[in-house]
Amino acid sequence: MSIDIESATGPLAPADLGVTLTHEHVFINMTPTESRGGYMTVWQEREADLRRFAEAGGSTLFDMTNGELSNFAAPIYYTKDQAQLRQNPVTGSRSVANVLATAELSRATGVNVVLGTGHYFCDYFDTAWFDRTSTSEMADFLIADILDEIPGTGIRAGFLGEIASNLPYITAQEERSFRAAGRAARETGRMVSTHAPTFATGEAQIDILTAEGVEPERIVVGHSDTVKNVEYSIDLLRRGVYVQYDCMMACKAGGHVAEHELQRRVDYFKTLVDLGYADKLLLSNDVSERHQQAALGGPGLTFVFEEFAERAVAAGIDAEVLHHIHTDNPRRVLFGE
């Protein structure tokens, strides 16, 4: 039986999901590590990207902007209240301004946006908050974001994500973040979507989450396409989780496609489909920096439907399989079907 999910603008039924991107950001602040382009908050640019997605047949985004990534992640002058712009200093929840601006843009464009909750990686942490907040307290705050509201917004999160580690190993504080997310997922039945780039750390993330009682089919290992060995994806799939190829933002810049990045992803993806794993694959773009928006020469939110799809079909992946991956798989992982 599927669970009840609320989007930024109200309850969402499984039939409402439609064509879905499972790892995106509406507004985001990545300046702690991406100082030049990591502030994606211009309303007109974000509206243009979402409208382009809707015009391409898209219906729903899973918004992975977690607590840390929401700091000052709202359009300039959306509010001058500094407290509204900051990550919640007590619960670690997303900032009020980020949540409300995301809901407003969702209403303006007609695109469903499901909000995540959780914590990013150690470079972004308020370490004093992590030191004084127990893992169980952290889990309780995440559960409240899902079952009650993201404080001060009247809006509930729909899943845990993106829960992040960023190195070849998981730091002690990141492990506590994963354990808290695992406990919240076990309590609420929600999916957990992770950030696991470059290094083959997805298995360690799975180990922690399953130790906390999360079933593998409720876990999405993100950024799997950035690990440059398809055997890694196969190993993850053998464990029963969803594997997400979501870093299409690395495939286009300045209006030019990075052929080696695109072709490697298509080759890996075809291998996984041919092995019979189409039901456990997800696709997205992870547009998270300003230059990655379509109007500025990046992939925007439609690259997976355009350049990637064209190349995938030419490689022998059936278009119906891609449609299944954009519709049925997101519905099943979000609603627990």
Largest sheet, strands/sense/barrel: 8 strands, parallel
Count of beta strands: 14
CATH architecture: Alpha-Beta Barrel
Shape: globular
Task: Give a summary of the structure in a few sentences.
This protein is 38% helix and 15% strand. It is an alpha/beta fold.
Please name the defining characteristics of this protein.
two-stranded antiparallel ribbon, TIM Barrel, 11 helices, alpha/beta, 8-stranded parallel β-sheet, 337 residues
Write up what this structure looks like.
By secondary structure, the chain is α/β, with parallel strands linked by helices. The protein has a single domain, classed as Metal-dependent hydrolases (TIM Barrel). 38% of the residues lie in helices and 15% in strands. It is built from 11 helices and 14 strands. The strands form 4 sheets. The chain has an 8-stranded parallel β-sheet with strand order 3-6-7-8-9-10-11-14. A hairpin with a 2-residue loop joins strand 12 and strand 13. The radius of gyration is 18 Å and the shape is globular. The termini are close together. The model has no long low-confidence stretch (mean pLDDT 97).
